[in-house]
Amino acid sequence: MLEQKDFGTPERIADEDVTLEIDGMKVSVPRGTSIMRAAGMCDVNVPRLCATDSLEPFGSCRLCLVEIEGRRGYPASCTTPVEPGMKVHTQSAKLQALRRGVMELYISDHPLDCLTCSANGDCELQDMAGKVGLREVRYGFEGRNHLAESRDESNPYFAYDPAKCIVCNRCVRACEEIQGTYALTIIGRGFDSRVSAGKSFMESDCVSCGACVQACPTATLQEKSVTEMGLPEHGVVTTCAYCGVGCAFIAEMKGEEVVRMVPYKHGQANEGHSCVKGRFAWGYATHQDRILKPMIRSRITDPWREVSWDEALDYAASEFRRIQEKHGKNSIGGIVSSRCTNEEGYLVQKLVRAAFGNNNVDTCARVCHSPTGYGLKQTLGESAGTQTFKSVEDSDVIMVIGANPTDAHPVFASRMKKRLKAGARLIVIDPRKIELVDAPHVKADFHLPLKPGTNVAMLSAIAHVIATEGLMDMEFIRQRCEEKAFLQWRDFVSLPENSPEAMEEVTGVPASLVRGAARLYATGGNAAIYYGLGVTEHAQGSTAVMAIANLAMATGNIGRSGVGVNPLRGQNNVQGSCDMGSFPHELPGYRHVSDPATRDLFEHAWGVHVQQEPGLRIPNMFDAALDGSFKGLYCQGEDIVQSDPNTRHVAEALSSMECIVVQDIFLNETTLYAHVFLPGSSFLEKDGTFTNAERRISRVRKVMQPKAGFADWEVTIELSKRLGYPMDYRHPSEIMDEIARLTPTFHGVSYEKLDRLGSIQWPCNEEAPSGTPIMHVDHFVRGKGKFIVTKYVATDEKVTKRFPLILTTGRILSQYNVGAQTRRTENVQWHEEDVLEIHPHDAEERGIADNGWVKIQSRSGETVLRAKISERMQPGVVYTTFHFPESGANVITTENSDWATNCPEYKVTAVEVKPATEPSSWQKSYARFRKAQHELLASS
Amino acid sequence: MDMQNLIHMANQIGDFFETIPDHEESLSGIANHLQRFWEPRMRMQLLEHVDARNGEGLKPVVLEALRIHRGDLIAHH
Lengths: 940, 77
Fold this sequence. Notes:
The complex is a heterodimer. Chain A is α/β, with parallel strands linked by helices. Chain A is about 30% helix and about 15% strand. Chain A contains 30 helices and 36 strands. In chain A, helix 13 runs antiparallel to helix 16. The longest helix of chain A is centred in the middle third of the chain and has 19 residues. Chain A is globular and about 90 Å long. The longest helix of chain B is centred in the first third of the chain and has 15 residues. The two termini of chain B are about 20 Å apart. At the A-B interface, helix 22 of A face helix 1, helix 2 and helix 3 of B.
């Protein structure tokens, strides 16, 4: 097994080292370090139960007592800091006796079922009993005890067995210190002290992050998978395939079976923490719904026919060539998955550019963070966030705009909450009262509940305050930014029409709140902006991103730790897929296809001509399909039917095409319109890399053979070969070598270096051989930062008498994106259907009852969901998620999109909501269509 | 492709670049954006609309940009 050494107490950072002696060994450690940790650093492991290095020392178990020369008594080594010249002894007859006495008390109230216990071999209590040489329990086992207390099995992933609890408090502290949820406490006093979630774990506030399970030294909180399967026998470090935080995990295995996923404490993105998805919801990878055989059919009304890989690939290639001969070279394209690896993304765009011979390649970033790519490139010079996650620890002010980190990026949210609890100030700009506005021990200093679609108005109003009240960092601006552009911007934002008072009617937020928030952001010290899809998925998504960059430049909040512009990216590898040249206008490394030098580089390496014109973006592909000029699509790991807006439009477009090849692990909604199905591989079945929201490239490591025989990168190679463009790679590391050779920001990246450093934040090249945690330190990537005028333009999607409410869509903690993975896990116990959240006033006006069915109608379509009456919503705004295909959330959303990138305006749809008694006509017809499609599968 | 959609998207681009104080920069900004991000068939269709229907529905600033920078917007292969 891969051991994660536990030093007992957390690392301390100090300017000065302290030298002391432990058991005769000299050791120098940073001032503030505990004796326990110092001992661990010279491989002296002081016995302990309540201490673990992910938690602050607590000093309750009394096992870690030591002797210090010249001092009386036996201080706890976990809570005693080192001092210069200190001489410590961790072992003596007296200490042994004291520890044995403590262990006797613990064991007198503990079931002696070690041989049948699920933690047998992985139990710290068992280990300590051995270490202290416990041979008898003088108190016997007949006294008062807790052995008859009943287990709490309510959580689907772990059980709580109070009979085995030693009340070390580690779980309670983990919930508070690491996760920040405060779901657990100790109730009772003395002998009656017990860990409690208040109610059962499932009924409590527990978010099932697993921090308590990870911290538990016994089998009290134990993964059910371990109880069922026994302990794992080996572990492999890999990267989570859920959100853009990119947590490192140890996949703990028995042969090729995953026993559990344990957060890796050296993972630089998560530092040992996890959420319910990465920690527990990995069962989809071996779910019975996986399709493991290739299938083909001529028409989507035909039954699927299971065929060999050769036949499927030959058919796909011949269809693509036939279509190109008939409709032209540009009549086909491909979609790169933001869930697959960098190497796989690189190969798909290479296949499109080299084998298809066009630039019709896009990725799901189109529908999420493409405005980030555009906006940050224009202003700062690079299409990525500026910071490392760790940077938040140095923030004094945190501004969260259009993001809900506790649900969508939970592990980073915990890190953010930790900083907020330590005193950082918080500004939340969101139509909804997200959890961060008022969480345990976290309260926003300002919540600006703006109307959906008015981000740019709000950001202009904030800029107005900063510019007109003299709050700009003029020295930074003079040195670092283009003067002419700055003056234009300053004059623009200073106009009275951009004042908070003037914008109050537009945003719906009182001017005094906006002024207060602006002053805090500009003057509160290190200020960092974190934003999400609530910024990008608008008609002015790119404008809002540029407005955010303007704010950071105007206040000098860029180029050091604690500040910056931080897009919280949605999918595990959405940053990576963009980096890999998945956009139709850019080659890898965000270099435009019209640049002759870049094209020359790739043409020389690939031995083909690369088109100099941009290709079709995903929404353009649909439009081109409907006009008859786009006929074939290679779609890897992306469910465009469920995730893209205006489902009916998408379905109509796909129905008009001649060959859609879907490569996926499940029969997703897009597959219902496909002609070829190529079985995909999960992240457990392949090698590669993912790049997270902080530009961190991390290894994905294969822990089992691909269930269908091939990893996704191998399938792309096979398809390319049949298109007459062979690619010669034996391992994904060779693909990365090619990426590094051809991409300046990746020049220094290799698998060898990734293995050595753990992970690398690009740019990684000659100037930054170990990577770049923080960008734009001395100068912007584009040279001088460029302020851009960002005028507010109201969306065309306006509320009317007919559609008086605004629908905005989003995510929930337990489900992920289109739900293909999480719906196939026990996470459905937390969220088994999408619901419509509606404010009590709006509900009452319409006669809508909580949990009652409601019809949501927009200009695009209608669907029926259950209502959830919630004060998280402001009046006039309703909210839903899109995790279940039958919900049809995207039947309602429109084709309105960001002016620069065509990113859909998911966040603003004018709707009316009424009580309903039956599913919508779309839902009925789609249910029939799905049923028919599944019958076509069954008959194969 | 749907001409109304192309007109709508082009006008959105116009809305953004129109705010640049220098009119020439606005025009080149619009044209440059179309050239760098729109696939040639979309650009050609828009130019055909300018020729055939005098750019009906397009904002004046967009129409002007299309006319002045027409040469740059024609597809290169």
